[in-house]
Design a protein that fits this description.
The protein is α/β, with parallel strands linked by helices and about 700 residues long. The protein is about 50% helix and about 10% strand. It has 28 helices and 19 strands. The site of (S)-3-Hydroxyhexanoyl-CoA has 24 residues, from β5, α3 and α11.
Length: about 700
């Protein structure tokens, strides 16, 4: 028998500790163990109640996701949960850490639930493209009521123990030692003769779908809005609705089929891949856990522009003191005013209260000149994107920063090796590439210059974690991973407009893939002038054999900078942000096409999809081949968190594997022949296509 579930007794109470680190996932060994030990307790005459508890950091955090790719071995979790109903002795789930998914379903099968106040519980299965498949969709509505159950099941966000108590999911909160508290709770149940509560029985009527039509519709709409294009939230709702019209056993039976369909769907495969990819990203192949990050107790930010302010807020939000430095009092005052406004906005939107705003603002100090950074552990430069300016800043910073301070640049594409060389301590220089708005976007691209010390890199990754971000490591090249792999998509989008597609057609094809906005609408939002300036700064490096973005330049020359100018690829009426197709864009495209000798034609949606997506994939393959990204999945995480690529498609490299590399390689070769050098096929793509290989498997 499996030894992952123990058996101990305290007086009349049997305690079954689950011991399957790190998260006590309910793999086959744990399932076998629970079944066997529950039966042992049921048969043990000296035992009158049973406590199920997790050892280590948590109650089970769900089914073992790694088992999903294999046939499920018996006993299935649902069989255990249903079996608990038949045990005559009261069973208490003692919850700490996170009771998630199958973990919460196991707890719902227990007759009572107690939790420490710090515990969190929920059913995040929709995030994996499935739904609670061990009767959670049947039992949770009976225990918590339909609205609360749908909130947990459809939105997939866990709640804290206090909320769980309010929802009726837990029966009591235990302050202090959980095991002792749970045993005392069980003793009291025995003493009071409290009847077992069986959550598969309707405690109160849960009503019919008609009774709850409004609530059900509310969650359908929320699912459409927050998880656009994703099936599992709707499958979850269907399952809950089944429970309102069928008997418990029939609804569970229907769930089994539906669960298998979901589990085997492309969306679930992609979402599970994304789950592990995200965790993999934090592992640095050649820097083991034994390399400790440097201690960061104080931080500084150079520059109080849009990016700088977002970085300041991100640091202050996570409890770090920040000194923000500007070159003049006026610039500093402006920046500080904007930072206050940013927090006022958060208070207005109900994200934080006024006291929290004051606390966060109290962590921020303004100063003019670098002297104020002389005792700071980590400084992030967020100045103008100009290599000479940055070199100057790092040279000056080098003179005042304390030994061992991390000196980071927020550049989004520049040569950080050159920036590091402007200091006497290149081992302390790293890149921390934030995304706008820096306080809200979860991605942080941690860039590793050639001479950076391993513990400097570990510190960058640790900072990401501390500030609630996903840190992904990149090596130095123009645009690193994120911008370098996205540029080809934007480039093709603009070429397609020059060749005859409308911006709306191009964007619609990409939103059709599940991205919330197309690349041209995004350019309008962020400003066409940003990449225009970049192209200008790199004009002397332009390879004449590479097709050039003449149309994008022309748009800027005509002042069409995007939303801020009221016109870009689209026009924007009355200062609004709604893109309206603009015939002037077509006229400009026709003019530029004529000047460049580009034939205009009807362009199919398929061509748009292939050119935009395959150009990015081909570049991703080069990034991987050159070692700029350590793993294909790191590129995917950049796309999921940086560019809102739909998580249920896994990322561009995962999508490539789904489509099949021979198909992509073939099309890339055809585009190369047709459109020239920018389409040079990645040798890695070609090799993998020939060998039947893949990027992500
Ligand atoms: C389910 O339950 C289906 C049922 O309804 C029906 C069944 C029939 N399985 O995240 P961390 C690994 S679906 C396997 O870094 P944290 C993780 O990969 C499940 N492995 O820690 C990592 O491994 P490594 C529903 C898992 O403290 C290590 O554990 N449940 C699982 O930041 C540490 O993880 C969920 O969706 C798993 N279920 O966060 C919850 N969970 O060290 C999924 C984790 O090799 N889990 N691992 O990289 C989580 O959300 C977070 O892991 C948790 C801890 C919040 C628990």
């Amino acid at each position: 028998m499996s030894d992952l579930v123990g058996y101990e007794t305290e007086g009349r109470v049997a305690i079954l500790p689950i011991d399957n680190p790190p998260v006590n996932a309910l793999g086959i060994g744990v399932r076998e163990g629970i079944m066997a030990q529950v039966d042992r307790a049921a048969a043990d005459d000296s035992v009158e109640a049973i406590v199920l508890i997790g050892l280590g950091r948590t109650f089970p955090a769900g089914a073992d996701i790694r088992e999903f790719d294999q046939p499920t071995l018996e006993p299935h979790l649902i069989a255990i949960v249903d079996h608990l109903d038949t045990i005559e002795k009261p069973i208490v789930a003692a919850i700490h850490g996170t009771a998630l998914g199958g973990g919460l379903e196991l707890a719902l099968g227990c007759h009572f639930r107690v939790a420490v106040p710090s515990a969190r519980m929920g059913t995040p299965e929709v995030n994996l493209g499935i739904f609670p498949g061990a009767a959670g969709t049947q039992r949770l509505p009976r225990v918590a009521g339909l609205d609360h159950a749908l909130e947990l099941i459809v939105l997939g966000k866990p709640v804290g123990a206090a909320t769980a108590l309010e929802y009726g999911i837990v029966d009591d909160l235990i302050e202090g030692d959980l095991r002792a508290g749970a045993v005392a709770f069980a003793e009291k149940i025995i003493a009071d003769g409290t009847p077992r509560r069986i959550s598969s029985e309707p405690r109160t009527g849960i009503g019919s779908p008609e009774d709850h039509a409004e609530t059900i519709e509310k969650y359908r709409e929320l699912a459409n809005r927050r998880m656009r294009g994703q099936d599992s939230p709707h499958q979850a709702i269907d399952s809950v609705v089944d429970g309102m019209t069928m008997s418990y056993p029939d609804a569970v039976q229907a769930d089994r089929k539906r669960f298998e369909l979901c589990k085997n769907s492309d969306q679930s495969q992609a979402l599970r891949y994304a789950f592990f990819a995200e965790r993999e990203a934090s592992k640095i192949p050649d820097i083991g856990k034994e390399i400790a990050p440097r201690e960061i107790a104080s931080t500084g930010v150079i520059g109080a522009g849009t990016m700088g302010r977002g970085i300041v807020a991100s640091l202050a939000d996570s409890g770090l003191p920040v000194t923000v430095v500007e070159t003049s009092q006026e610039a500093l005052d402006n920046g500080m005013t904007e930072i206050v406004k940013l927090y006022d906005g958060m208070v207005q939107r109900g994200r934080i209260d006024a006291a929290e705003k004051d606390e966060r603002l109290a962590r921020i100090t303004g100063a003019v000149g670098f002297e104020a950074l002389s005792n700071t552990d980590l400084v992030i430069e967020a100045a103008f994107e100009d290599l000479d300016v940055k070199k100057q800043i790092f040279g000056d910073l080098d003179k005042v920063a304390k030994p061992g301070a991390i000196l980071a640049t927020n550049t989004s594409y520049m040569d950080i090796d050159a920036i590091a060389a402007a200091t006497s301590r290149p081992e302390d220089v790293i890149g921390l590439h934030y995304f706008v708005p820096a306080n809200a976007m979860r991605l942080l691209e941690v860039v590793r210059p050639a001479k950076a010390a391993p513990d400097a890199i570990a510190t960058g990754m640790a900072l990401a974690k501390k500030t609630g971000k996903i840190g992904v490591l990149a090596r130095v090249c123009h645009g690193f991973i994120a911008n370098r792999s996205r540029l080809p998509m934007v480039r093709e989008a603009t070429f397609l407009v020059e060749e005859g597609a409308s911006p709306a057609q191009v964007d619609a094809v990409l939103t059709g893939l599940g991205m919330p906005m197309g690349p041209l609408a995004v350019s309008d939002l962020s400003g066409l002038d940003v990449s225009w300036r970049m192209r200008q700064s790199l004009a002397d490096q332009h390879d004449p054999a590479h097709r050039y973005m003449h149309l994008a330049d022309r748009m800027c020359e005509l002042g069409r900078f995007g939303i801020k100018a009221g016109k870009g690829w689209y026009s924007y009426e009355d200062g609004g942000r709604r893109p309206v197709p603009d015939p002037e864009t077509e006229a400009i495209a026709i003019e530029v096409a004529k000047e460049q000798g580009t034939p205009r034609r009807d362009i199919s949606d398929d061509e748009i999809r292939e050119r935009c997506l395959y150009a990015a994939i081909n570049e991703g393959a080069k990034i991987l081949d050159e070692g700029i990204a350590a793993r294909a999945s790191d590129i995917d995480i950049m796309w999921l968190y940086g560019f809102a690529y739909p998580r249920w498609r896994g990322g561009i490299m995962f999508t490539a594997d789904e489509i099949g590399l021979p198909e992509i390689d073939q099309r890339v070769r055809e585009f190369h022949a047709e459109h020239g050098k920018l389409w040079e096929p990645s040798p890695l793509l070609t090799r993998l296509a020939k060998e039947g290989g893949a990027f992500t498997r």
